[in-house]
Each structure stands twice: as structure tokens, then as C-alpha cells.
Amino acid sequence: MKTRVTDLLGIEHPVIEGGMQWVGRAGLAAAVSEAGGLGIITALSHPTPEGLADEIAAVRSLTAKPFGVNLTLLPTLKPVSYEAYVEVMVAEGLTIVETAGRSPEPFMPLFKKAGIKVIHKCTSVRHALKAQKLGCAAVSVDGFECAGHPGEDDIPALVLLPLAADAVSIPIIASGGFADGRGLAAALSLGADAVNMGTRFLATREAAIHDNVKQALVDADERQTALILRSFSNTARIYRNRIAEEVMALEKRGDVTIEELAPLVSGKRGAAVYETGDLDAGVWTAGMVTGLIRDVPTVAELVHRIVSEAEDLIRGRLAGLLS
């Protein structure tokens, strides 16, 4: 498939790995890039910018193909030196960066000067328009189905993608709710130029997480997610486990503070889930696409399957409807 995104990023297939805290590591990112997609490592999985530099070197030792780095700009209880991470990205000669959360505007001059293509993740049309105005090379439009932070407008991809396609002229990457060739074909028909997948790549052999997590995704249905932090306008979609239920109950009380919730939603506890396989050790992100995950293939098998299914669908069933 040849789309504006494959041309922009120099990749073979319009399939991109989502930025995933604690999971977007060198092995998984390199496998996605080697399969013809775009692998992405996650900057803030590393407590120091120097750790990010080491991870970039690790990816380059595994693949010569394009890859990117995700930098998520969100309010945190512990201050993060985003500028230091950006300086590492520039110094390391990156060509692709995915930003998410707050606007990347403060860092755009540095990115542009370094010739870095910026993909900004947006959960609304107005944010996509702002990203285009700032000079982002593409937008990743995130529907309400997604894992992580779906924004506060609650607009699903089926509506959000064509609205964004009508509004912006830069390439669009469809995010949230994509796991197979049907999703890729649908995204292309809605005006997108590629799909971005996070949760689906969790359930692959190369994802460096405990097998219990992968099996939980295979066993789950589309109802196995929960929305937390809604009362703080910082909504997050996560796997529905004991901790998720506890957080939702506290929020329902109406007077809970972020300080009370912090021990429950800490990132370190979420990392422990991936390391130990204890699904209730902390909160961990998962999208509604859990209902479509039925196996744990290699990354190459998954990417090639998705592209093949989409091509067969476009040439076969959809083309056949016209006759």
C-alpha cells in the first residue's frame, strides 16, 4: 500500500506502533520497523534523558529502517525535564517524533531546525487544526475507543476521522480501536493514511511484558476496560482490574483528591504489572480493541496479516459490491 504516510515516513506499510509507557522498547520497535511499519520507543519509559539515548542506540543496533520516539506531555506529580529529552532527540539525529498530551508548540522550533517530522496525537478536530498550524508533518487522530488518554470529548473514530479529514490537509493516522485488516481498510476509507496500534502490539511475542498480560488481552472482550480520572478532566482508559474498580469507586464518592488516588495510579505500579504478571498490581492501559485480540503472533505475522486482510477486503468484497 502506498499512502501519504508511507511516503512521508519512508515505510512500506501504513501501520504504526503506538507510544506505550514501559512497553515501547527497542526490541518491539525494531520488530515493527523490520516488518515494514514504523516502530516507536517511548521517551518517558526512561527516568533520564541518557537512558533514552541508550535506547535509541539499541534500536539502531537492531534495524536500519525508520523508527520514531514518543514524547507524552502531560501533567505529572513529579516534574519532568521535557527539554532535556528533546535535546537528546535532536542530538541523536532522529527524523520522526510523536508527541501527545499538551501542545508541542514550545519544542517545534528545535524540531523544525533539526529537520524532525513531528506527528502530534489529537483527540479533537480543533487540536488537529492547531497541530497543522504549528507545522506538524502529520496528526494521529485518537478516537474515544483508544487506550490511554482519549481526551474529554468522547468522540469515536467513526465520526472523528472523517471530520478531521475534512478539516486538515496534512496526513492523518487513525488511532484507537484498530487491530486487524478490517480496521485498516475502514481507516483508509474514512480519510486516514495509516493506522496506529498500541494495545494490539502488546499481544505480540516481541513485546517485553509478562505472558499473563498477553493472555489477559486474548481472554478479554470489548467491555474489559474502564475510564478513570474523569473527575479531574484527565481521563484514562485502562484494563478493568481491581485497582480500576477501586479508583472509580473513590471518584464516584465525589470528594476524592488526586493525592489520595496517586498511590493507586502510580506509573511504577503499572510497570510492575508488565514485569510480574500480577494483573492487579497497578493500573495499565488497554483499549476497547481487546475484544478483537485472539492470539499472540510475532510482530511480522501481525503486520503482514493486517495488510493482507485489508488488501483482500479492498480488492474483493468492497470491489465486488460495485458490480
Automatic annotation (TrEMBL):
<dbReference type="Pfam" id="PF03060">
    <property type="entry name" value="NMO"/>
</dbReference>
<dbReference type="InterPro" id="IPR004136">
    <property type="entry name" value="NMO"/>
</dbReference>
<dbReference type="InterPro" id="IPR013785">
    <property type="entry name" value="Aldolase_TIM"/>
</dbReference>
<keyword id="KW-0503">Monooxygenase</keyword>
<keyword id="KW-0285">Flavoprotein</keyword>
<dbReference type="GO" id="GO:0018580">
    <property type="term" value="F:nitronate monooxygenase activity"/>
</dbReference>
<keyword id="KW-0560">Oxidoreductase</keyword>
<protein>
    <submittedName>
        <fullName>Nitronate monooxygenase</fullName>
    </submittedName>
</protein>
<keyword id="KW-0288">FMN</keyword>
